[in-house]
Design a protein that fits this description.
- By secondary structure, the protein is of the alpha+beta class.
- The protein has a single domain, classed as Up-down Bundle (Outer membrane efflux proteins (OEP)).
- The chain contains eleven helices and four strands.
- β3 and β4 form a beta hairpin.
């Protein structure tokens, strides 16, 4: 008897030491929050680099549009390499001078208007790229967080399956159950451990995808407290799409198309080229001034087709703008409904439903160990708990995804002052 008591004391001592060692806080890095992931992604995103390059190109294009036409140097020699008195250079006439194109019809101001419209669209494109990047990173973060939550749940279910196998073994050894219960519990343990392996792989893939976006490995834990949080969402307040990015881009395209119409009209007016030269006559060694005016004669291309093309493109842009208004209003209303429904589902699935399923499974485990419930009752309660946990994770993922898409739809367009900057 004393040996048995000593052995129990030794086991208890070892267990307490192991528990003390495992309870010591391990040094861990702070969790990777969504805002931190967004900041890291913004530092290395190729889409933002491309949008910024587009703005620089538009600024350079605005400078080019303001330039006037360059003058030309005119040089020619006449009456050379002929016959008779025109043999050689004896009767050569050399003319050298400058010619300067004079733009008429407001071409320069029309080009500047088009360049300004393109620059405004490029700046809106930068904000669009930032909003798209935010949505993409948020969705990857949601996938990684849900995969991590599924991994935690799978490990908990595997632990429960191992405990159920141990309890079944005790019942079989005590003669209170058939060996079939132990075999069935072992099968469930194997399936639970397999689910852990699958969840581990999916979690690694989700983290790798997020790491590619933020430009560094994801070694810290994710902010699961943010993932589990469901903000209150009351009745949907109508949101007007007037100030959203989507409509700002459509309006900028329409403005650019209208500026192209003005440019096409200005190009119908022919330009005048003035020239002033000095001519030297080889025979007499005299110098004379030569002045000229060149005006194109629009016989074949009078510019009407270009105006018709620009006007059709402007009509198309205006129609697309009106269609964007309708689509934006519809998409925002649908997204608001999705967020509200997802919030209700997530709040219920992760709240009272999950608590009830966990309590039912706890009672079934106690009753099974005490012989009050059969194994089928325990398995049914555990399966319900597992399905409820999975449904809660899916509902939270759907909620956060719907919220991210709604935020992308209602993202505010930059003000006119920001566009000028």
């Amino acid at each position: 008897m004393s040996r048995i008591i000593a052995a129990l004391l030794a086991v208890a001592s070892c267990a307490s030491i192991a528990h003390a060692q495992s309870s010591e806080p391990a040094p861990t890095s702070p969790p990777l929050t969504l805002e931190r992931a967004l900041a890291l992604a913004g530092e290395t995103a190729p889409s933002l680099e491309a949008a910024t390059a587009g703005v620089r190109a538009a600024v350079a294009g605005r400078t080019v549009a303001g330039y006037r036409p360059n003058p030309s140097i005119v040089a020619e020699t006449e009456n050379v390499a002929g016959s008779g008195q025109y043999r050689g250079l004896r009767s050569a006439e050399t003319t050298a001078g400058l010619s300067l194109p004079i733009e008429l019809g407001g071409k320069r101001s029309a080009r500047i208007a088009v360049a300004d419209a393109i620059g405004n669209r490029a700046r809106i494109g930068t904000v669009l790229a930032e909003a798209d990047l935010r949505l993409a990173v948020t969705q990857l973060y949601i996938q990684a967080a849900s995969a991590e939550r599924r991994l935690v749940t799978a490990r908990e279910q595997a632990g429960i399956a191992r405990e159920a196998l141990r309890a079944a073994g005790v019942r079989v050894q005590a003669g209170r159950a058939s060996p079939l219960e132990q075999q069935r519990a072992d099968v469930l343990r194997i399936n639970a451990e397999t689910a852990v392996e699958r969840a581990q792989r999916l979690s690694e893939v989700a983290r790798d995808n997020l790491a590619r976006r933020i430009g560094q490995p994801v070694t810290a834990s994710l902010d699961l407290a943010w993932y589990d949080r469901v903000e209150g969402f009351g009745p949907a307040r109508p949101i007007e799409p007037a100030g959203t990015l989507a409509l700002a881009a459509a309006r900028a395209d329409a403005t650019t198309a209208e500026a192209q119409v003005r440019l096409a009209r200005s190009q119908r007016v022919p330009d005048v080229t003035l020239s002033a030269s000095a001519r030297r006559l080889e025979a007499t060694n005299d110098v004379a001034a030569v002045f000229g005016v060149s005006i194109p004669f629009p016989v074949f291309n009078n510019g009407r087709a270009a105006i018709a093309q620009a006007r059709a493109q402007s009509d198309q842009a205006q129609a697309l703008r009106r269609a964007a208004e309708l689509d934006a209003a519809q998409d925002i209303a649908n997204a608001q409904a999705e967020v509200a429904n997802a919030a209700t589902s997530a709040r219920n699935a992760s709240g009272p439903v999950l608590a009830a399923a966990a309590e039912a499974a706890r009672i079934a485990r106690i009753g099974y160990r005490e012989g009050k419930f059969g194994q089928l009752d325990l398995l049914d309660a555990e399966r319900t708990l597992s399905e409820t946990r999975t449904a809660a994770i899916d509902a939270l993922a759907t909620y956060h995804d719907a919220k991210a898409r709604l935020e992308r739809l209602v993202a505010a367009a930059p003000s006119s002052e920001e566009n000028v900057q």
